[in-house]
Amino acid sequence: MTEAPLRLGTRRSALAMAQSGHVAEAVTSRTGRAVELVEITTHGDVSREQLTQIGGTGVFVNALRDALHAGEVDFVVHSLKDLPTGKPEGITLAAVPPRHDPRDVLVARDGLALAELPAGSRIGTGSPRRAAQLRLLGLGHEILPIRGNVDTRVGYVRSGKLDGVVLARAGLGRLGRAEEVTETFDPLHMLPAPGQGALAVECAAHDAALVELLAGLDDSDTRAAVLAERTLLAVLEAGCSAPVGALCEVAEGEQVTELYLRAVVANVDGTDSVRLSATGTLDEAEKIGRELAAELLARGASGLMGERVP
Ligand SMILES: NCc1[nH]cc(CCC(=O)O)c1CC(=O)O
């Protein structure tokens, strides 16, 4: 008798379907187990309110976890950057697959890069982190809040409503739209969200056989990198909408694997920021995240995050 297909709970958005489909294929090719996608609708998908007003992207996560708890699905896939930093009860982070490009990108009119857009150009982003870092560049662009899926956001550029929008490269890439990118930001200018470009595969903690099966998808370098970034975020006690950027890169040294963590905390109006970095070995991920956060706080990070745009 063949085993029943594993049920993978997913949101219906094109990005979520692409991410879930990618993980489903990886599971099937590794284990021979069939995987079926089960669609789940979340409050975040149906609400037109600004994400920051409905409690951040955590709303996407909760509906999937509820379906896990209810036993309606066997496992779920999230964009790791959308996960709140707290550990959920009864759920295991079974795998963090190899990360895609973590950087942010610009999709602008006429193939232009950011510095080619004149002062006064209209740039859209719904992310306070991206808005603050764009303002810090001092190019005189007008930064406008937008939301919606990738199609909607890029659509504002195609229709001429905006001169450019900033998005995650990983999202565009997973949708097969990477060729629409007009500039990939150097993390020196634009640090991504902690966890950006990585996926999180979760299942019920009590399902030991499934925890073991999914562990085959895990990439230890990616797991360490996102642990460093997310520990930093947790210590800063910043919500997912706070202007905090962090990127941990992994480099194979001769003896040890090295981590290089960079972070920025800015105020939302992009007039002030603190930017620091740290290095450590692979097993020091949590430590360097914690210590770099402490250093940022010592240099005034909490005051910056507390300020509000008038
Ligand atoms: N905030 C929504 C969201 N969550 C994950 C991605 C992209 C994929 C990723 O970063 O892993 C996006 C879209 C974006 O930020 O452009």
Summarize the structure.
33% of the residues lie in helices and 23% in strands.
Q: Could you characterize what this model shows?
A:
The structure is a single chain. The protein has 310 residues and is an alpha/beta fold. It folds into 3 domains: 6-97 and 198-218, 3-Layer(aba) Sandwich (D-Maltodextrin-Binding Protein, domain 2), CATH 3.40.190.10; 104-184, Periplasmic binding protein-like II (D-Maltodextrin-Binding Protein, domain 2, 3-Layer(aba) Sandwich), CATH 3.40.190.10; 225-306, Porphobilinogen deaminase, C-terminal domain (Double Stranded RNA Binding Domain). The protein contains 10 helices and 13 strands. The protein has helices spanning 14-31, 43-46, 58-69, 128-136, 150-158, 169-174, 208-215, 220-236, 285-298, 301-306; strands at 6-10, 35-39, 75-79, 91-95, 104-108, 122-124, 142-144, 164-168, 183-184, 199-204, 244-252, 257-266, 273-281. The protein has a 5-stranded mixed beta sheet with strand order 2-1-3-10-4, sandwiched between helices. The chain has a 5-stranded mixed beta sheet with strand order 7-6-8-5-9, with helices on both faces. A 3-stranded antiparallel beta sheet has the order 11-12-13. The chain is globular. The N and C termini lie far apart (64 Å). The structure holds ligand PBG. Ligand PBG binds at residues 57, 79, 81-82, 167-168, 170-171, 196-197.
